[in-house]
Task: structure prediction
Amino acid sequence: MKRIILFLATNLAIVLVLSITMRLLGVEPYLTASGLNLTSLLIFAAVMGMAVPSSRLPFPNGPPSA
Result:
């Protein structure tokens, strides 16, 4: 249980830091000009941050040898 909470907290912290950094650097107007939305980019980052490590849960030490 502690492992899952730390995993979720880490992903949330990464998305939060990414959001603050992009807003402070003023990247949003450049993203909007090229047709991207900062909110959708952050949601995509959160989904990928959750999905990729979760796909390794069945084999934490790598795939089994044949």
Notes: The first helix runs from residue 2 to 25.
